[in-house]
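#structure-requests
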Amino acid sequence: MRDADDAGTEVPAAASDAAAGPGGAGEGGPVLPAGFFAELPDRVRRTLLAAAVERRFAAGETLFRAGAPAQTMYVVLDGRVRVLRAGGGRPHVLHEEGPGGTLGEVPLLEGLPAAASGAGAGEAAASERAPRGGYPATAVAAEPTRCLALTRDVVRGLVQREPDVALALLARLAARVRHLVERLDERAAHGTRARLAALVLARHRTTGARSFTLGGSQQEVAEELGTVRELVVRGLRALREAGAIRAAGGGRYVVLDEALLRRLAE
């Protein structure tokens, strides 16, 4: 995980390359992905783009850390960002955002002044007790990623002037709360092997390919499942020994018995 001073490489948003997806931002500007932009009128999209700066992040680069003063909201143009929070001595993935996803909007809308974390405080402590008004979690680029960056003042001004922006942010927040509740229910009801089986099954169905990866390293899968890498290794071995999957090399897997995998995921 690499830190980025002032969050990534910065270029003017109006000069950015086109990003694949629907939702044009106006002549001469990039094509914006769906998601946050889907319900915004063209006029609002143009206003947003004019106020934004594009920032580019390498894989493993940190957009922001838990506890840092929240000054910027990010909208993902392309790539993938994982949002993590420390707990029990290891990081847990809260959610991932791809094109059209938003990051950092919660503290910007909290209406409280940003509070800097204490000098010399460790990341784990900051993650577990992020100050009010600061980022509640840490965001890390899982792959090369481009984002639009909007400052606190710009976001709050748009919310006050443009009801469509406020409604779009409320829809994002509502969906995120639902997602977090579902994750809590899943972790309470299922053990590590069942959650791993469900993840493998989801990757098999999502990719539509005979062989597929788990979407990240074993460490990233452990963080996604709220466990440790050793248990992921054991779980994959158990799934292979049960005849549900086989390793295809290069971190890829093939499902041998989808019905068995479904039963193991229940």
